[in-house]
Amino acid sequence: MRMRRIAALATSLFLVFLVSPASAHTVLISSSPQKDSVIETLPTTITVTFAEDLVSIGNSNSISVLNENGEEVSQGEVSVSGPTLSKNMIAGDKTGLFKVEYRAVAADGHVIEDSFTFTVTTTAVTTSAIEENPVTSAPAVSENKLSIYFIISVTAIVGGLLILIFIWKKRAK
Question: Which CATH number characterizes residue 115's domain?
Fold first, then answer.
């Protein structure tokens, strides 16, 4: 009898995890300046925008902009507004290759970490002059709005209810 209960509990837990919705993770959809772009002046703000909203928990999100010597050229706190992270730059007329490193936490709890580069020169070629067929379609937005916290909560509630049912049945004997 005890083995049947254990098997039933294991099967129930397996089914709970089996029917949990799949979670698609967010992706970077744009940045300013754009990845691998060549621009004439250093921007006053760096922004990275994702396909889904981000959450701000402590210092979970970050942007760091480094020059060719590895020195930080961004300043202040990272701002989170919906799906966009932004950070101010140190004013100046610096040129060269810059590396943007970012870390963002999506609403589903997934952490996105990556980097890209851009170049500042005094004789920049605009990307619109190079690009003959610009992309006009918007990226697909995930329909999944469930967060990892919701999934964990439901799993804990169902598991707790199953344990209570087994205790109640055992006491009923």
Answer: 2.60.40.1220
pLDDT bin (cut points 50, 70, 90) of residue 99 is very high
pLDDT tens, position by position, 125-143: 555 555 555 555 555 555 5
d(CA 62, CA 12): 40
Number of structural domains in the chain:
1
What is this structure's pTM?
A: 0.58
According to DSSP, the residues that pair with 64 across neighbouring strands are 101
CB atoms within 10 A of CB 112: 18
Measured CA to CA in angstroms, residue 93 lies from 34, 43, 59, 71, 77 at distances of 19, 10, 29, 15, 22
Arithmetic mean of pLDDT, 80-89: 92
Name, in order, each residue with C-beta under 8 angstroms of 111's C-beta and a sequence gap of 6 or more.
Answer: 60, 103, 104, 105
